[in-house]
Amino acid sequence: MNSALQFTTSPYTAFMHETKVDLGNGIQLHVEVGGKTEDPPILLIMGLGAQMLYWPDFFCKSLIDHGYRVIRYDNRDIGLSSKIRHKGPRLNTYKMMGRFSLGLQNHGAPYNLFDMADDAALLLERLGIEKTEVIGASMGGMIAQILAAKYADRVNNLGLLFTSNNQPFLPPPFPKQLFSLLERPKSQDENGIVDHSLKLFKVIGSPGYVNQLETMQTARKLYQRSYYPAGVLQQFLAILCTGSLLQLDKQIQQPTLVVHGSQDRLLPPGHGKAVAKAIPGAKFELIKGMGHDIPPHFIPHLSELFAHHFKS
Which intervals hold domain AB hydrolase-1 (predicted)? Predict the structure, then answer.
């Protein structure tokens, strides 16, 4: 780990330490690291509009207990990382989504997922990490696929969680789940956002495993930490302007484990299966009852799966 970086204890998690890392490309990323310095690192890459605290503490601690040093960070445009101010023309999201589902190219976003994968590679460089295990969730899984293909010498093994390669004609999100994701909150104040988050997680989360109180507490904490809806839209546009990763998947050489929930209605399991089929030698694991989230109930099994994959 780069000794020039100054870490302080995370205000959220006693066993994590935080710092800001200047990537040298105009972006600063906010990072948390936990575990022993001598343990092999795991880089966790989060999904669309999700701050790094969406990697549950219990999940991070489970990986640390398996003998890893865990690194989680806010992607650009979210949390405490740099925000991208974009003055370009307003884009028609629905039209772009239509083209995207057919595998047609979109343009005009301020950045795409390749730029976000470059951020991850620069972060590893700045942290002084030569090689790492990687787990990417949802959009973070798309970034992880690019990272493994483009920066192959940086990634030991790849773990992908409820993600997609966005190849044409994959099963679409269920309408209720998609509209919950795209719907605007009733109000932009703290209570409006907390209510909106709870409603969203009830719809996309694992049925029967969404803890209402915990979800509201997390949403409140994240709202107070950072609220920047423009960043969420820009990350969504980044996905739409990156398009299919199918050809890129064929270049991935690292041992890959793709994990998906049987109850995922936002990215149905067909997405994970498509990724596993496209990456040479990838393994696919379906978790019965899990949705598009990481509830405590599934964490021991998930951390065991990934730790076993990385060690074998």
Answer: 40-294
**Residue 184: which of 172, 199, 174 has the closest Cα?**
199
Domain map (residue ranges) of the chain: 8-311
pLDDT tens-digit readout, 133-174 = 999 999 999 999 999 999 999 999 999 999 999 999 899 888
The span from the CA of 261 to the CA of 138, in Å, is 12
Cα 277 to Cα 211, 250, 256: the distances in Å are 34, 9, 11
Cβ–Cβ < 8 Å for 31, 18: yes
Lookup: tokens for 82: 């740099």
- Residue 221's contacts (CB-CB under 8 Å, 6 or more residues apart) are 12, 53
Domain boundaries 8-311, corresponding CATH code: 3.40.50.1820
* Burial environment of residue 86 by CB neighbours within 10 A (0 to 12, 13 to 18, 19 or more): middle
